[in-house]
Every structure is written in C-alpha cells, then in structure tokens.
Design goal:
The complex is a heterodimer of chains A (260) and B (300). With 260 residues, chain A is an all-alpha fold. Chain A has helices at 2-28, 46-52, 55-88, 94-106, 109-122, 129-154, 157-165, 170-199, 202-207, 215-225, 229-254. Chain A has a single domain (48-254), classed as MetI-like fold, CATH 1.10.3720. Chain B has a two-stranded antiparallel sheet with strand order 1-2. The longest helix of chain B has 33 residues, at 16-48. Chain B is mostly helical. Chains A and B meet through α1, α3, α4, α5 and α6 of A and α1, α2, α4, α5 and α6 of B.
C-alpha cells in the first residue's frame, strides 16, 4: 500500500515539476544580467526598466485595457440578460438557445477568428480596435452567461416569490432581491472575461487592423523575432497580472450570499 | 425569434404573458449579438466555402464543391492526418501523465484536494503565449535544456528539439494537461474506495485492478478529459506556429496560411468547415457515450 502511494506521489510531483519548471525558469531568467546566455550572470532589473521605456509596448497595453474594459462591459451586460432570460421562464426552444450559446466555447478559436475577419471584410467594416472588441464580447458573452446561470440555479426561488408576495413588482423583486444575490457571480465572471480578453491572441490576430496592436499581438511579434530577457520580464509581469485577476474572480465567485 | 419566444408551455398563470414578454426582451440583445457576430460569420464561412477564389484574391460567387475536393488532395490530407495524429498522441500523453496525478489528488484528505487542484490550475491561467514562449526558452539550441545537458556532460552536441513535432507535442501536453486532470479527478473522487480495496483483497494483480476495476468505473471522466484535450489540440494554432517547424504544420496553421498568406478565402473556409466537422463529430460521440453511461443498467 505505501509503495503504491509513494509511486503515485512521485508521479504527481513530476507532473507539478513539468507544469511549473518552465514558468519559474522564465521568471528567474528575467533577472539575469546576461542578454544572450542561458547561464546566470548576476541579478539585474534592467530588463524591467527597458520595458517601462518601450512606448510601443505601453501603447499596446493601453489598447488591451481599452478592449478588455469595453468588451467585458458588453459581454457582462448581455451575458447576464441571457442567463436570467434562460433561467427564469421555461419555453420551447430553450434547449436550442442553450446549445447555441455553448457552441462558441467548443469550436476552434481559429475558426471564430477567420469567420469574424471574413464577416467584417464582406460588410466592409475596416478592422480596428472596435472589431477586436466586438469579437471579444462575442466569445466572452457565453462564459458570463454560463457562470451567472449556475449561480442563479443555486438561488432559492422562494426569496423572489416572497418579495412578490409582499407587493414588489417583478422588476423590483429582481432588482432588490435577485440581483444583489447574483452580484458576486456577475463580478467574478466579469473579471474572468476581462482576463480572457487581455490574454486573447487568436481572435485578436484575425480581427485587429493596422495600428490596433494589443499586448498579446505585441508579445507574439516579439517572441517570433527573438528570445530576449525583455520578453522574460514581460512574461513575468503577465503571469502575475493574470493570476491575481483570476484569483480575485474565484474569490468573488465562491463568496456565497446564501448559506449553501 | 418570435416562434421560440412567444410559445409557452407552463401552467396557465395570470402572470405568464407578461413574464414571457419580459424574457423576450431580455434574451433579444444577447441573441442578436451572438447572431450577428458569431452565427452569421460562421454561415458566411460555410457559404464562401462553396464559392471560388477571384483572380485578385477576392471571392467569386459560384457554387462548386471544388474546395472540398481540394481538401482531399494528398497534400492537404496529410496536414489533416498529421494534426489528428499529433492531437491523438497529445491526448494519450495527457491521460498517462494526468491519471496518477488525478488519482493521487482524489485520495487526499478533502482539505488538501482543493490546494492541489489549485496547483494544477495555476499554470493554466497564465497567458498561452507566455507558456509557449517558456518552452522556446527551454528548448532552443542555446536554451536551458541544452546548456544543462551539455554542462553535465550527458551530450556534447545540442539537441535540436525546438521547431519539431516533439516540441509541438510538449507544448500541447503542457497547455492542456489541466483539462485532463480535472474531469479525471471528478470521476475518481466518486469511485468508492471499497471497490478498489475489494479487488486488492481478492489478490488481483495491479494491472487487473487498474484495467478491470478503476478504468471501467472512471470511464466518463476519461472520455471527458480526452475530448477536452483532443478538441483544442486538433484546432491548435499558437503551439505549432511557435514551437513547430515547417513540417509540423497543423490544420489551424493551414487555415491561417490560406486566409492571410495565399488569400484563398473559399479554400480556407472549406478547410475550416472540415475541421469544425471533425470537432463536432468528436463532441457528438462524447455526448452519446455520456448518455448511454448515465442510463442505469446499460453499458457495463
């Protein structure tokens, strides 16, 4: 028995090593004083300083934040509408709408990218940050809808009914009872959508026009051209940002207003 | 939209008509958005896949199956096969690597399970480009792996791993391993310990405990994990683009190449649809097995 457990533990630790080693190594070498070598030549922060002075990079960060905020706003607003609409009243075809909303989560991202590119080309809308935002809102909407709907299902329907019995209109009951209970899930899914938007490369790649460079597009072109300590430093920052965003999202989603 | 939204099959309730209209109002904006920016573009891809390429790269509207015939050309069929093989190998590798980890986590005390699951998920929340770059950094000729191996005297010439199928496989397994571990964990966690212990008590050899007890009873998790790894691997773009060489082209790269480099949109669309067909077939197969497995008394 104990030999089996030791074997399992060993295999599991090897998996974790596989998962973490590349990221840890990457971050470690962002502090390496040597520009070319993969051996340690002393500690430095100069690559981070270089990043802070890279104007094209800062412009890309700004673009990413703009797209992230705008697309998250649209996706959250529409995603909550979809979740509430789907959950509250049964009607024929609900299964169809549900399945349709899940489709964006399973089709290859490349396909979503090229289809949007084709669409914008045919309706003669020039590619820009706006088209990127539209695309991001389209793949984030179902994600928000799924998360909010899961929370909605766990809510006690008698709470809203009680509000109605006490004379509240449907809108008042929703606004004053259901919505506050949903808030953690809404904020959590919005943070997740924001993170996904900040990280997205493929859909952005196909829907961004000239001058609409977002951070992942910039990272991609940097990675394609060379391996430099600046990319390591940038990666380290991105790792930190994504993780803190997702961590806050999870904390919000877990925060339970009811006693479940 | 109205035939879906105006029909109602609940009990007749005084509030019903008003509620229905309220819901129609709520569902309309998200459905319109998804219709305009997801389904309509997909439909366009389908329509254009039957058209042909204009002289200057535009689209000439006509109906032909020529693009789909071209997909069957050995040159392109090879890329499809190559993608299928890479995705399949990546899936098997994830299963082999992920199963012990999932099993270990599922048998930990409950308070530790959350911590370990979090540990599995954390790398997954890191930007995909960054994770791929990390492997470029590790695998390139003058990278860490080679300097470690040469420094320790194990090899004297650097290994050329980067820009090969091996590198693509490493990237795919690295990217999607969490997708395998989570459903496996969920399935193993539900597997009663007593069943496995009974097998041991009856002197079953280790392979039999695994093949004849653990694996059949955790099949839903295995299938779910395999689908979750296989689908994104098949449509992968970043991994083969950055880690693969000229000969590791996958379908995702072919689509990008046809759209942006050759500018043959109709053919690129046909390739996209064949890829989507493959993905949806896999998904259907998964839903089918899940259905039969959820029916009690069937499929042992």
């Amino acid at each position: 028995m104990s030999r089996r457990r030791a074997w399992l533990l060993g295999a599991s630790l090897a998996d974790l090593l596989f998962l973490y080693a590349p990221i840890v190594v990457l971050i470690f070498f962002s502090f390496n004083a040597s520009r070319l070598s993969a051996s340690w030549r002393g500690f430095t922060l100069q690559w981070y300083r270089l990043l802070a002075e890279d104007h094209a990079l800062l412009a890309a960060v700004q673009n990413s934040l703009l797209v992230g905020l705008a697309s998250t706003f649209v996706a959250t607003l529409l995603g909550v509408c979809a979740a509430v609409g789907l959950e509250r009243v049964p009607f024929k075809g609900r299964k169809l709408v549900e399945g349709a909303l899940l489709l964006p989560l399973v089709i290859p991202e490349v396909m979503m990218g090229v289809s949007l590119m084709l669409f914008f080309a045919l309706v003669k809308v020039p590619l820009s940050l706006v088209t990127v935002t539209i695309g991001h809102a389209a793949f984030n909407l179902p994600i928000v809808a799924v998360i909010v709907r899961a929370r909605l299902r766990k809510l006690d329907p008698t709470l809203e009914e009680a509000a109605r019995d006490l004379g509240a209109t449907a809108w008042q009951a929703f606004r004053r009872v259901t919505l506050p209970l949903l808030m953690p899930a809404i904020l959590g899914s919005a943070l997740m959508a924001f993170t996904i938007s900040l990280d997205d490369f493929i859909v952005t790649f196909f829907t961004a026009g000239p001058g609409a460079t977002t951070l992942p597009l910039k990272v991609y072109s940097m990675v394609r051209s060379s391996v430099t300590p600046e990319i390591n430093a940038l990666s380290a920052i991105l790792v930190l940002v994504s993780m803190s965003l997702i961590a806050s999202s999870l904390v919000l989603q877990r925060k339970s207003p009811t006693q479940d | 939209m109205s035939p879906i939204l105006s029909s109602h099959d609940g009990e007749p309730h005084p509030d019903q008509p008003r509620k229905i209209s309220c819901v129609a109002w709520l569902l309309a904006p998200p459905l319109l958005w998804m219709g305009a920016f997801f389904f309509l573009p997909l439909l366009l891809v389908l329509v254009i896949s039957f058209a042909s390429r204009g002289t200057y790269g535009g689209v000439e509207w006509s109906f032909s199956l020529a693009n789909y015939a071209t997909v069957a050309d050995p040159l392109y069929l090879k890329i499809f096969l190559h993608s299928l093989v890479l995705a399949l190998v990546a899936t098997v590798l994830c299963l082999v690597l992920g199963f012990p980890l999932a099993y270990y986590i599922a048998r930990l005390p409950v308070r530790w399970q959350g911590v370990w699951l979090l540990l599995v998920m954390i790398p997954f929340w890191t930007n995909f480009l960054v994770r791929t770059y990390a492997w470029i950094f590790m695998l390139r000729t003058e990278g860490l792996l080679n300097s470690l191996l040469i420094g320790s005297g194990l090899i004297d010439k650097p290994l050329e791993v980067l820009f090969s199928d091996t590198a693509v496989l490493i990237g795919l397994v690295y990217g999607y391993l969490p997708f395998m571990v989570l459903p496996l964990y969920a399935a193993i966690e539900r597997l009663p310990r007593s069943v496995v212990e009974a097998a041991w008590d009856l002197y079953a050899p280790a392979w039999a405990v695994f093949w004849r007890v653990i694996l059949p009873l955790t099949k839903p998790g295995v299938v779910a994990g395999c689908i979750l790894v296989f689908i994104p691997s098949l449509g992968a773009f970043i991994t083969p683009d950055l880690l693969g060489g000229a000969r590791s082209m996958m379908v995702g790269n072919l689509i990008q190449h046809e759209y942006l480099v050759v500018r043959d949109w109709p053919f690129g669309s046909a390739v996209s649809f064949v890829l989507m067909g493959l993905v949806l077939t896999g998904l259907m197969a998964y839903l089918r097995t899940e259905e039969t497995m959820n029916k009690p008394g069937e499929e042992r």
